Amino acid sequence: MTDRWARAEERYRAREADxxxxxxxxxxxxxxxxxxxxxxxxxHWDDDDDTNVIPRYxxxxxxxxxxxxxxxxxxxxxxxxGRAAAGKAAPARGRGPSARGREGSGRGKEPSGRGKAxxxxxxxxxxxxxxxxxxxxxRRNLWAVGAxxxxxxVAAAGFAGYKLMSGFTPPEDFAxxxxxxxxxQVHSGDTxxxxxxxxxxxxxxxxxxxxxEAAVRNSNMNGVQPGxxxxxxxxxxxxxxxxLVSKSSxxxxxxxxxxxxxxxxxxxxxxxxxxGIYTKxxxxxxxxxxxxxxxVTYEQLDAAGASTDLAALGVPDWAKQxxxxxxxxxxxxxxxxxxxxxxxxxxxxxxxxxxxxxxxSAAQYESTGLLRSGATxxxxxxxxxxxxxxxxxxxLPPDMPKVARVIVNRLRIDQPLQFDSTVNYSLDKTEVATxxxxxxxxxxxxxxxxxxxxxxxxxxxxLKALAAMENPEPGTWLYFVTIDQKGTTLFTExxxxxxxxxxxxHQSGILDSGR
Length: 515
Description:
mainly alpha; three-stranded antiparallel beta sheet; elongated
């Protein structure tokens, strides 16, 4: 019996080993076929081949933990052999079926262990499938990214090769000779590349690259200012750059001094001509060199400035009503072209040129607060511009705010302004002093012969004069007079004191007439 129980225990342990470590050659068999195979105790109980219980270890995917083994009931201890000999052998034999029952019970639990193993394998299979799909998707993404990188690399290599090859090929350039001049504009902030593009668009050079290469070799390009330049078409790039940086190529550059009016005047004492704004515009409009130069003439500008089409001339809205009522059409644009440096495109006609200058000047005027100045001086914008032109002609910059206050104070009490500058405005020959006959002549501008402001500005005011008129210095002055050639000006609210100041001016000779 001892040997039999030992073999039974060995068979039980073999079954547990098979359940925990199933042999790979049994996988894939039908469960019923597997159950039909003979149990170890029915086949070769005395077979000493240990390979039936030694498991074949296989690496499981992702290290999935094995199911916990079922607890094994401890084997009952056999009674001593002496007791069996004493007559208790029958109960011992009665344990045989019980032992076989336990063995049968062990065999009944075996499919449950295998089912758990199959469920574990199924779960591992699903996890493996998902991870395989994930790896496949990642591989596709890697392939896509790799393809994009390859395309970019090929494109970069092609571009680098193109630039390398083009570096050995000189840019297209004209051989000359240069043709007719054209006007090219250089904007504020333009780089050499942008200027080169403008030159190419105007037909000055054959390629922007050729101009750029010539420009970077010429240090004078750093001195090119915003404005308009006359450069010949079909020029070799080197010649175009040399022309651009020369002073003679600048066109449409107008410098208007403070107090300048549209038309020419002459000095009474010297007979020298004081050039008006129209004369200066005509000189700045010339393109090319004499005798082939193309210029807008003084007469053409004078005729264009008398046009009744104020919108075409660029007259701002705040001035249109007063300009339309001007008593002299030839003088209607006076004051609308500001003092200072202005640029215009000379390739246009006289109306185009005047529109450019008036539009630019109006923007400058408005930037000082002109449209809001009425709250301080009780004048509309055009009246403020007229008064500023008087300030420009009557005062030096330090005295401008005081002269502006005298104008406001006199207008408030309807006292004539009596400015000599308003008398000289309509005269061809002028001087600081005026005659009694000149002061007595009634004109739309003579403030000795009427109260209020002239019909239009009498000169181009500076922005300083305009600012002074927009914000006059506080005071009660009603009179002022310049008493010497240095420009010393005395202010007072007393007429008697004003007469004494006039005597000082006579003593200095500043009021002596050359007529």
